[in-house]
Amino acid sequence: MDESTFRVGGLPLPQALLQAIRDGRWRPPQDLETIENVFGDEPDGPQFYDLPTIVRQNKSFRRMSPEDAYDDGAEGVGIVPGSAVLIGDLGADMPIALDYRLSLDNPRVLYLAQSGWTEVAESFDALAGLLRIYA
Fold this sequence. Notes:
The chain is an alpha+beta fold. The protein has one domain. 30% of the residues lie in helices and 21% in strands. The strands form 2 sheets. The chain has a 5-stranded antiparallel sheet. A two-stranded antiparallel ribbon has the order 1-2. The longest helix is centred in the middle third of the chain and has 13 residues, at 51-63. The radius of gyration is 14 Å and the shape is globular. The termini are far apart.
């Protein structure tokens, strides 16, 4: 499998995510307070997915209709499963997704909070910086 052009449902995963997975850096920080500060929620068994898990988790997610995918929330962000890729979760029903609707090259990062989908970072690179996975 050529990971340099790895796609899920036709959507290219960011190179920074692929590199972090390859290097073993795409994993939840040991300091759960960092996760709580970034996502605004207390994690409950957070998982940052490897490539096989990304593929598996997105099979059923991508078949959902936007109406079934989860509610728009207070910010009205919403999500369209055909234009998003799940890359992790903070626990059950707490997914983290790349949202490609604004940019195919630089998707923003959304999280399903209690209030609905919310933007947590303008890009994967920004999320990685907030989580300090490059440190």
